[in-house]
Write a structure and sequence with these properties.
Layout: E1 9-13, H1 20-34, E2 38-43, E3 57-61, H2 75-90, E4 94-98, H3 100-113, E5 121-126, H4 129-135, H5 141-149, E6 153-156, H6 159-169, E7 175-177, H7 184-187, E8 203-208, H8 217-230, E9 233-238, H9 244-253, E10 260-264, H10 269-272, E11 278-280, H11 290-297, E12 302-305, E13 321-323, H12 328-340, H13 342-359, H14 362-379
Parallel strand pairs: 1-2, 1-4, 2-3, 4-5, 5-6, 6-7, 8-9, 8-11, 9-10, 11-12, 12-13
Bound molecules: ligand GMT.
Residues 19-22, 24, 99, 127-129, 157, 180, 210, 212, 214, 283, 286-290 line the site of ligand GMT.
């Protein structure tokens, strides 16, 4: 089947908790649906950011059987079955798997189960830790490579991730870079809603993540200690994850726990971000840095690290600051400078918003996915 059709039927599988890959997959689905495509999610739960009840968005929840003989409910197999059913029922042309593990291999299994005339085109989007940590692990290296080799097209969220994947897996096919995106109009909030835990007359420093080791959340606390030695400030820690305990421990040790608020996951991040004077994301590496993008879209300066694809987003000194991983001193110096200098804070915020609009807005990125879908369908005719 050749297609010039404007309206595509697209399936999406992704992680549904607060990670960046699930957020990107959900926002992509919503944006595609609002451009008239029919979008079917097959997932374990309603995705974290699935906010609108759009006419052409469908969410199929996988419910694996739970039987005592099985030591775990066979979720991955149930998901493959569900994808095959959804493709058959709705005649889906493209399946878009987000985060190689396990979604690309699950989709391949679903494809294997379908008759020739229903075999869909599998697009796999690599998000970062699926390659750098999980897929690179010896236990999963082979299946990750297999899933990528058998995808009809592969995308990565930055050139850095594309090159890392090429280096680690030596694939025989190209990887296309398609950056993370946001809708700038959602982030350009003029009237800030009052938020009870944001204290007036204090500088507000924020960190947002899933508190995994790669996020180096204790560095955030150490930088904040230096900030709070110089000015009246509060630190808002947004998210949940395994390193939260150690960050609380460091804040207690440094005697600043009363200035740090842990608010857990927060749904309307676009309402929260405008209250921040600064966002600190000191990750070991970020393949793109979705949080930094959202902060920039809100006009908030970001301090991040010179590591990974985030260097394709932030121009050091112009639209934020990039420091060496673990360099608490330099991060604190920039933080203090930008927090004291309202003019600098504003200039960086303004340039950041412009950069986001120009290169990372929904209008710039979604057509790149649409083009890839259509080219892939035309290349892999059913
Ligand atoms: O940040 C995480 O560890 C979660 C991870 C995910 O897959 O959910 O985020 C990755 O994907 C995001 C969306 O493409 C990127 O913006 C993040 O930079 C990336 N995280 C890392 O590379 C550590």
């Amino acid at each position: 089947m050749k297609t010039n059709e404007k309206r595509l039927k697209i399936g999406i599988s992704c992680h549904t908790s607060t990670g960046g890959s699930g957020i990107v997959a959900t926002e992509l689905g919503l944006a595609l649906a609002s451009r008239g495509h029919e979008v079917h999610f097959v997932v374990d739960n309603i995705p974290f950011r699935l906010r609108d009840n759009l006419e052409n968005v469908f969410c199929h929840i996988v419910e694996p059987v739970n039987y005592p003989v099985l030591n775990q409910p066979p979720y991955y197999l149930a998901m493959a079955s569900r994808i095959a059913e959804v493709v058959e029922e709705h005649n889906i042309q493209i399946w878009h798997a987000h985060y190689a593990i396990p979604h690309a291999s699950i989709a391949l299994l679903a494809k294997e189960m379908l008759p020739q005339e229903l075999k869909f085109c599998l697009i796999t989007t690599l998000h970062g830790t699926d390659i750098t940590i999980v897929g690179a692990d010896p236990s999963l290296h082979r299946i990750t490579k297999y899933a990528m080799e058998h995808s009809c097209a592969i995308t990565a969220v930055s050139n850095w991730l594309k090159h890392e994947t090429e280096r680690e897996f030596q694939l025989s096919k190209p990887i296309y870079t398609i950056y993370n995106f946001i809708d700038p109009s959602r982030f350009n909030i003029k009237n800030k809603a009052r938020i009870p835990f944001i204290e007036k007359n204090k500088k507000v420093v924020m960190h947002i993540s899933n508190f995994r080791a790669v996020k180096r959340v204790t560095d955030v606390i150490r930088v904040f200690k230096k900030i709070s030695d110089k000015m009246d400030a509060q630190l808002i820690m947004v998210g949940e994850g395994p390193e939260k305990v150690s960050s609380v421990g460091v804040a207690r040790q440094l005697g600043i726990l009363n200035k740090v608020k842990y608010i857990g996951n927060y749904h309307n991040i676009e309402e929260l971000l405008p209250h921040a004077d600064l966002v600190i994301q000191p990750s070991e590496h970020e393949s793109f840095g979705m949080v930094a993008l959202e902060a920039m879209a809100s006009g908030v300066p970001v301090i991040a690290t010179k590591s990974g694809g985030i260097q394709e987003l932030i121009i050091d000194g112009e639209t934020g600051f990039l420091c060496e991983v673990g360099d608490i001193e330099t991060m604190a110096d920039w933080a203090i400078q930008v927090l004291f200098d309202k003019k600098l804070q504003k200039e960086i915020g303004k340039r950041s918003m412009e950069r986001v609009k120009k290169y990372f807005s929904v209008d710039k990125i979604i057509p790149q996915y649409e083009k890839l879908y259509i080219n892939t369908i035309n290349k892999h005719k059913r």
